[in-house]
Amino acid sequence: MSILITGSTGFVGKNLIAYLSENNEEEIKPLDLRQPFDISEMNNVNTVIHLAGKAHDLKKTSSADEYDTVNFGITKKLFDAFLISDASLFIFMSSVKAAADQVEGDLTESYIPDPITAYGKSKLKAEQYIASQQLPLGKTYCILRPCMIHGPGNKGNLNLLYRLVEMGIPYPLAAFDNKRSFLSVRNLCFVLDEIITRRDLPSGVYNIADDKSLATTEVVNLLSIATNKKGTGLLNISPALIKMLARLGDVLHLPLNSERLQKLTENYTVSNKKIKQWLQKDLPLNSSEGIILTGKSFFKNK
Q1: What is the DSSP secondary structure assignment for residue 202, as one 8-state letter?
Q2: What is the pLDDT of residues 192-222, one digit of tens each?
Q3: Domain coordinates of the chain in residue numbers?
Q4: How far apart are CA 144 and CA 129, in angstroms?
Q5: CA 69 and chain centroid, separation
Q6: Are 202 and 153 within 8 A, CB to CB?
Q7: What is the CATH number of domain 2-150+181-209+269-284?
Q8: Reported pTM
Q9: How much is the pLDDT for 291?
């Protein structure tokens, strides 16, 4: 039997395949959803891991229909095929954004979803479809909601912070006092491998995050350690001025825009207690170790 993985060429997919190749004996079968597929793709498959999807577009050039077609429509088709296949486990990679774009306190699975963006709404729609279907005996599903994932090959907001550190530019957003959750891709792969191997996780929704949330200023300091850039420094520039510059970035398509500023400075902490209660194991990396590992990968690949 094998593990079918969609989105195998993406950031998470590449890391997951490398991890499973070292830690799991089952055959891995990538599935390219850009090509037509049918139930035969699930022959001799016991686990389906659906990673493929349309990512959140910071440039706002994607329509709601595009998100709906990919994140809901394709997920529905794949899950329908799973229901009539011999596979017994379906893992859907959703997002914390399916629950909320902004949170107060720690985000838990009991939070009533209220996404704002088309991306979050499309992920939630897919979640709701999966949860609404009658499961045949012996089948389970796991909906995973990761927070900001980082690691080797990551090109997100941590890359922007890394470039500041590498150039020795003091972090200009130190006046924003925030905490947010991160997720090392290695920790994510560890959780996925545990789910696949143990096969006793009850069907449901699970937040995935590192154990400790970090302030962005802490992340900058950790990236400084990773790249041996001592004394990068922090600047306490007026938040009002920074927000004005971000609005200018919206118009001029600069690296710092309003949405990226929000991601860098917002409070967004995610509870992983539900999945940890099931795991009864420590994650391989603590939050600081994960950030340092990502920083070193940037340094190595520059």
Answers
A1: P
A2: 999 999 999 999 999 999 999 999 899 999 9
A3: 2-150+181-209+269-284
A4: 14
A5: 20
A6: no
A7: 3.40.50.720
A8: 0.92
A9: 94
